[in-house]
Write a structure and sequence with these properties.
Layout lengths: L1 H5 L2 E11 L4 E10 L3 E8 L5 E6 L3 H17 L3 E2 L15 H11 E2 L4 H19 L5 E3 L4 E3 L7 H17 L4 H14 L16 H22 L7 E5 L5 H16 L12 E8 L1 H14 L2 E7 L5 H7 L20 E3 L3 H8 L13 E9 L3 E2 L15 E4 L10 E4 L5 E9 L1
Parallel strand pairs: 6-9, 14-15
Antiparallel strand pairs: 1-2, 1-5, 2-3, 3-4, 7-8, 9-10, 10-17, 11-13, 12-16, 13-17, 15-16
EC number: 2.4.2.30
InterPro entries: ARTD/PARP, Poly(ADP-ribose)pol_cat_dom, Poly(ADP-ribose)pol_reg_dom_sf, WGR_dom_sf, WGR_domain, YehF/YfeS-like_WGR
GO biological process, one term: double-strand break repair
């Protein structure tokens, strides 16, 4: 093996064979070296691979063996894994420590140590939330999220999204079609799913949502590199508890939180600990223009997981594509959801609606202005939303079989984040 280490790789090929109906989740990798040798590795995705080193004496013979073996595998049904060849291509991607440094420099925090510590926490939370629930890892040497076989291409991620949409629609109705879709999906996004592979692993909507988040993280690792020049344009200013004005603001928002809570919600046990004023100029400017046009501004709470906050600081709140797989929050159409009832929104921040069973140490909720404009107030949800001629949907408690108040706006410029509230 010392000879292989010292030799230079001339060519590599990674092939994958996933057939859910056969419980097959296999990989084959071939490497051609300039010393006239060929290394074959094979096994189950995510496991330690078996290997055989062929010393053939010349590059021509080694290449012939390499190409011949590759053709044999392809005839058996293996396909080329869509990987970024050579991780050196990703060396200028933002690494965790670099992202911390960039976020600390670009997010204006007034040199406040609490705000700086919050930024550090959000960076780590963003990475940890992704890597802790999947065998896809963050490589600190390259700064990229990786599948067990390597970094996947943007094309593979885009194709996988289409398959995941079909998987979500098929998961309960057609086992044969579902197995086919899963096989195609897992050839694009290789994962270690244990010794037994069948469609039941994708039976729950929570698993579909998890896969959707995996694709988002893989995509974001590439997208953030494209925007490296100026990743963040926003400000976090901690509301100080040591000033008269700071104490007054904290009391007002704490009173709003308590007065709009529902003690029957699990989230009602959380108490407001810290308050940060947020300013995302692009979001504020777009909202100001929209507010002048449609008016009817109301304060709403918007709950989100800590792992999402770094993305929100980068680009504000977004409306997921209509095709995106979501567990919650789509009953009244594709928009940004908020609530005047604080604990209704806070439940989203504590993973209550996703039934993950996880209890967060630090819980965050956003207090936003919603430009509601002309509101549609439904008595049922048996129609398409948004309703033509209306700017928003306002669902009163008890209407449309909804227990808690909900508001939905359908354009990102109808929302502006004012405060980030931290609970524990």
């Amino acid at each position: 093996m010392s000879t292989i280490t010292a030799s230079r790789v001339l060519d590599t090929c990674t092939l994958i064979y996933v057939e859910v109906g056969e419980n097959s989740n296999k990989v084959w990798r071939g490497s051609l070296f300039n010393d006239g040798s060929f290394l074959a590795e094979w096994g189950r995705v995510g496991n330690t691979l078996q290997c055989k080193h062929h010393c053939l004496g010349s590059i021509a013979l080694a290449q012939s063996k390499f190409e011949r073996t590759k053709r044999q595998k392809i005839r058996k049904g293996y396909t080329q894994a869509q990987l970024v060849e050579g991780e050196t291509k990703q060396t200028d991607t933002i690494k965790p420590e670099e992202l911390e440094e960039i976020a600390s420099k670009q997010i204006k925090h007034g040199r406040d140590p609490r705000s700086k510590e919050l930024i550090r926490y959000l960076v780590k939370s963003n990475i940890h939330a992704f890597t802790s629930q999947t065998d896809i890892t963050y490589n600190p040497a390259t700064g990229g999220f990786k599948t067990p076989l390597g970094i996947v291409t943007t094309k593979a991620i885009a194709e996988a999204r289409e398959y995941l949409i079909q998987i979500a629609a098929t998961r309960k109705s057609n086992s044969y079609k579902l197995r086919q879709l899963l096989s195609k999906y897992l050839r694009l996004i290789p994962q270690n799913l244990g010794h037994k592979l069948d469609e039941s692993q994708f039976a729950s909507l929570q698993e579909i949502q998890r896969q959707y988040e995996i694709l988002n993280a893989l995509d974001a690792a590439i997208a953030i590199d494209r925007d490296r020049q100026q990743v963040f344009e926003c400000a976090i200013e901690r509301v100080p508890g040591s000033t008269v004005e700071g104490k007054k603001t904290f009391r007002q928002i704490n009173q709003l939180y308590k007065s709009t809570s529902n003690q029957n919600h699990l989230a009602a046990k959380y108490k407001l600990r810290r308050l940060y004023k947020l300013d995302i100029p692009s979001m504020r400017e777009a909202f100001t223009a929209q507010e002048r046009t449609i008016g009817n501004v109301k304060q709403h709470w918007h709950g989100t997981k800590a792992s999402n906050l770094l993305s929100i600081l980068r680009q504000g709140l977004i409306i997921p594509p209509a095709s995106a797989v979501q567990c919650t929050g789509r009953m009244f159409g594709n928009g940004i959801y908020g609530s005047q009832q604080s604990t209704k929104a806070l439940n989203y921040a504590t993973n209550y609606w996703n039934a993950s069973g996880e209890d967060e140490d630090r819980v965050f909720m956003l207090l936003c202005d919603f430009a509601m404009g002309k509101e549609y107030c439904p008595q049922s949800y048996s129609r398409n939303f948004p309703v033509t001629g209306y700017d928003s949907t306002y669902v009163a408690p008890g209407a449309a079989s909804i227990i808690n108040q909900e508001s939905i706006v359908y354009r990102t410029e109808q929302v502006n984040i004012k405060y980030l509230c931290e609970f524990s």
